[in-house]
Amino acid sequence: MSKELVELMRQANALTPDEQLQLIAHLVESIGHCQIEAKPRRDVMEFMGIAPNMLGGMDAQEYVNRMRRGEFPELEIKPRKEK
Length: 83
What we know:
It is a single chain. The chain is mainly α and 83 residues long. It has a domain at 3-32. 43% of the residues lie in helices and 0% in strands. The chain is elongated, with a radius of gyration of 24 Å.
């Protein structure tokens, strides 16, 4: 989210409910005149071989099995500390 959008949302929250409805109406009317194009769908096969050395030549299933056994402690997710 951009800084500008965060700032606009903060300002919108400070408006009265009636002013917020007027803002919504304005935005809906403005967007009504726009033509939104759908993003093209990607073929998952485009990503084949994109990171071939990530597993160091290891079979993906073997990597998962070893990770589940705890053989890669640097990849372990640390538990969150309670406040």
